[in-house]
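Q: Please design a sequence for this.
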């Protein structure tokens, strides 16, 4: 998945090479989100749940499922000064991932924690 941060990245220039072909530095306006699994996502002893099934009290609509399974997701980035972390991301990002890749009752583990956005997303679901 590619998270396109869009216009929230700012208008700063390619440092040290403005308007010069000497060595323009590309600005990161996206992040890669890598999804790994060992085997498949089926729950042992049960049928695979459909996207319309409940995840907690939330549902993934058909339209959301179609949109969320595209390889590019567009979210504005969060302000690092507002969150107090150098690399924050919006709560909608882990919320979408949790809804897509977990079953009701699953444990969500964020081993790096950061500013706690994943925890907030899981709690809200």
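A: Design:
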């Amino acid at each position: 998945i590619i998270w396109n941060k869009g216009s929230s990245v700012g208008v700063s220039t390619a440092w040290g090479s403005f308007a010069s072909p000497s060595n323009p530095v590309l600005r990161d306006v996206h992040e890669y989100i890598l999804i790994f699994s060992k085997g498949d996502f089926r729950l042992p002893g049960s049928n695979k749940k459909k996207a319309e099934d409940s995840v907690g009290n939330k549902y993934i609509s058909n339209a959301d499922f179609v949109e969320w399974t595209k390889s590019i997701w567009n979210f504005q980035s969060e302000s690092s000064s507002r969150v107090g972390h150098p690399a924050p991301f919006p709560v909608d990002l882990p919320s979408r991932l949790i809804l897509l890749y977990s079953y009701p009752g699953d444990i969500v583990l964020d081993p790096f924690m950061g500013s706690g956005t994943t925890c907030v997303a899981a709690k809200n679901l």
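Q: Thanks. Anything notable?
A: The longest strand covers residues 2-4. The chain has a mean pLDDT of 78.
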